[in-house]
Protein: YccF domain-containing protein
Organism: Streptomyces hoynatensis
Amino acid sequence: MRTLLNLIWLIFSGLWMAIGYALAGLICCVLIVTIPWGIACFRIAAYVLWPFGYRVTDRPEAGLASGLGNAVWLIFAGLWLTIAHLVLGVSFCLTIIGIPFGLAHFKLVPISLLPLGRRIVPTSTHAYPSYRWA
């Protein structure tokens, strides 16, 4: 079922959004100072291509630099991307068939709002490290 949803998503939203995120990543990488945001854009582009079966988790080892970077991102790009995902999510949810895709747009809101200090993991894995008992 995930594969079918991902293929339909790829046609109606994923490919266009991934191209947009990838172009933003290229622009950020050309401007040397904004390389961390460019790398985040590439991660989001890969996530946007195939969102079903993945989730976003926080990175506990991320520090103050990612928080400051998120503040800059929020002002220049995060707010606008979040509004776009919310509008697209509501638009998709207006139809019964589009509800899973609207929910996928809502799932993209946290990482588009504050991308630094987060990671994308498969839903089958846990966000916590496994501990070995001796």
User: Anything to note?
Assistant: The chain has one domain: 2-119.
